[in-house]
Amino acid sequence: MNTPAILIIDDDPDVTYALSRAARHLGYAADSAATIHDALQKTTAKEFDAVFLDVQLPDGSGMDIISDIMNQPAHPELIIITGNGDPEAAELAISSGAWDYVEKGDSIHVIMDTLSNALEYRSDKLSSRKVRQIQALRRENIIGESNSITRCLEQVGKLAESDMNVLLTGETGTGKELFARALHNNSPRHKGPFVVVDCAALPENLVETLLFGHEKGTFTGALHDKEGLILQANNGTLFLDEVGELPLSTQKAFLRVLQERTVRPLGSKKEIPCNFRLVSATNRDLDAMQQAHTFRTDLAFRLCSAKITLPPLRERREDIALLIDHYMTLFFKKNALASKAFNPSVLTTLEDYDWPGNVRELVNAVEFIVSTSRNESRIFIKHLPPALRARLAKNRITPSSSSDSKLSSNFSYEVSNEELPTMQEHRNAVIEKAEHSYLTQLLNSTKGSIKQAVELSGLSQSRLYALLKKHRIK
Predict the structure, then answer these.
(1) What is the pLDDT of residues 170-222, one digit of tens each?
(2) Nearest 5°: phi and psi at 312?
(3) For a tag on the chain, would you pick the N or C end, based on fewer CB atoms within 10 A?
(4) Is the distance from CB of 297 to CB of 290 less than 8 angstroms?
(5) Mean pLDDT, the chain, whole residue set
């Protein structure tokens, strides 16, 4: 059996020494790094089974590299360790996939117990993978091999066999319905119905009759008994898309359905048993909605027995070429056209684009490209959708000093000729300044109200707290 390798990322030599000594005493191999730069170099060069990560490091916040560490091929178990207790940071760390969040004031025995538990879990997980021959997931149209998509698919594999309620979260266009179908198709219910309910498209005056059904004569126009969408999902999966749009009045009635697994159609005195598995999806922040009293807390708990957060396309750029190739092939075949090559600059442009509409926007763009290049021998920038090209052009233009933009235009990065940074370093510096300026003005405009800042910025509360901490804005 290989000796577990531990990395301790902390700039306090006393802490590093104590943790290294205790880890070696337990038979583990220990290494250390005092900065984010050194830590990323070491995690890239070597595989670690577990990582202790300090929050405050000389060159930035450890919270900013959680995904960088966890996305390494070894997928180490991550334990956040800090001298300053921060409940918001603890919540963010666990939500991001960290094993645990401990304080330096805890005894070394408590900290080592946390490490041992993490490694025991890891050993069991890896052994299970080797022993069991896991059947390949049915993942129709889920394209990508990036670490972030692979982790989501691993969650699908773990959750598919259970009847646990699953909440899929992520920006619009990230493929939540595809993942809901994957959960159904890989479950024991795969031969049963998969019923989609688009909560955003339900007319408010018809929500209950559409969901629960009704008996003949219940209201004017009810000429026949009608089975509701929930009962149609019996012995299958009920998928509530955009569940955050469900009216409050209906949320209460649906909560009872979830608790009892029975449905009473409008006008009926009978409760009809209904055996369905619930999968929900939303691009909204249900935590913020609960605080605003627009979503029931008890229902939110019921929906989220397990949660899968889908990454935006800009965070898995390595999948863009795969997605383009898949959908180009699909649309060329659909239109009975011969495939054709890209001008080299086109693919680079598409890979560098941020895709605010995510995979859905990419699919629409590819279909447009196939259509507009129909009579051409190759694909050029001109064949891209006009709206996409317009956004690219806008992003290339630096606003003049007379611009009415609310953000400061002083984002230049001044260095001497001998110390010219790399393009990535320059870009990071500009983004840092832009983020700090935006967050400062955001808090000023909302007079420090986190609730209003969340609503105005579109950020989740945990992400906002993380950015404020990163930029040391109070």
Answers:
(1) 999 999 999 999 999 999 999 999 999 999 888 878 888 899 988 887 777 77
(2) -70, 160
(3) N
(4) yes
(5) 85
> Could you give the CA distance from residue 226 to residue 214 in angstroms, rounded to a whole number?
5
Tokens of 322: 């795969």
- Please tell me the least confidently modeled range out of 134-143, 152-161, 361-370: 134-143
And the tokens for 116? 């041992």
What is the C-alpha separation between 241 and 183, in angstroms, rounded? 14
Task: Rank 233-237, 374-378, 412-416 by mean pLDDT and report only the highest.
Answer: 233-237
In the numeric block, which tokens belong to residue 12? Answer: 């306090």
Q: Which three-class secondary structure string do you get for the chain?
A: CCCCEEEEECCCHHHHHHHHHHHHHCCCEEEEECCHHHHHHHHHHCCCCEEEEECEECCEEHHHHHHHHHCCCCCCEEEEEECCCCHHHHHHHHHCCCCEEEECCCCHHHHHHHHHHHHHHHHHHHHHHHHCCCCCCCCCCCCCCCHHHHHHHHHHHHHCCCCCCEEEECCCCCCHHHHHHHHHHCCCCCCCCEEEEEHHHCCHHHHHHHHHEECCCCCCCCCCCEECHHHHCCCCEEEEECHHHCCHHHHHHHHHHHHHCEECCECCCCCEECCCEEEEEECCCHHHHHHCCCCCHHHHHHHCCEEEECCCHHHCHHHHHHHHHHHHHHHHHHCCCCCCEECHHHHHHHHHCCCCCHHHHHHHHHHHHHHHCCCCCEECHHHCCHHHHHHHHHHHCCCCCCCCCCCCCCCCCCCCHHHCCCHHHHHHHHHHHHHHHHHHHHHHHCCCCHHHHHHHHCCCHHHHHHHHHHCCCC
448: which residues sit within 8 A by CB, 6+ positions away?
Answer: none
Place of tokens 């986190």: 450
Nearest alpha carbon to residue 179 among 169, 191, 165, 190: 169
